[in-house]
């Protein structure tokens, strides 16, 4: 069992989350950025329009692909922090984690770190 692997993945998630330069709260949602396609991701503290429309208060970025926008909207910063917390918690007491669950944690960590199994 490699607790270090989980800690490194958690650190990468926290570093990526910390590099977001704007105040990107949650949730993130897909917004229509051109005539009809939902190719943007937005967050808004005082949203005034339908969920898929960007209002003047929205912070948003363009992904150019609907599938990427959908994915990014799911993986907003609190999700990364929750995953980091979960992996660090498991890394503290690895012997208390079921072997099958530990294998899933290691797989997740390797995916985050882009390291082969
Ligand atoms: Zn808005």
Brief descriptors of the model:
3-stranded antiparallel β-sheet; elongated; mainly alpha; binds zinc ion; 48% helix; 3 strands
Q: Quickly give the structural class.
A: mainly alpha
Strand order of the largest sheet: 1-2-3
Biggest pleated-sheet summary: 3 strands, antiparallel
Task: Summarize the helix and strand pattern as letters.
Answer: HEEEHHH
Q: Segments where pLDDT lies below 50 for 5+ residues? A: none
Tell me the span between the first and last alpha carbons: 13 Å
Count helical runs: 4
Number of domains: 2
The dominant shape is elongated
> Share of helix among residues?
40-55%
The portion of residues forming beta strands comes to: 5-15%
Total number of strands: 3
Oligomer: single chain
Ligand species: zinc ion
Polypeptide structure, described:
This protein has 117 residues and is mainly α. It has two domains: 1-23 and 76-117, no CATH class; 27-74, no CATH class. 48% of the residues lie in helices and 9% in strands. It has four helices and three strands. The protein has helices spanning 3-18, 66-74, 77-92, 99-113; strands spanning 29-31, 40-43, 59-62. Strands 1-2-3 form a three-stranded antiparallel sheet, covered by helices on one side. Helix 1 (3-18) runs antiparallel to helix 3 and helix 1 crosses helix 4 (99-113). The model has no long low-confidence stretch (mean pLDDT 92). The site of zinc ion (ZN) has 5 residues, from loops.
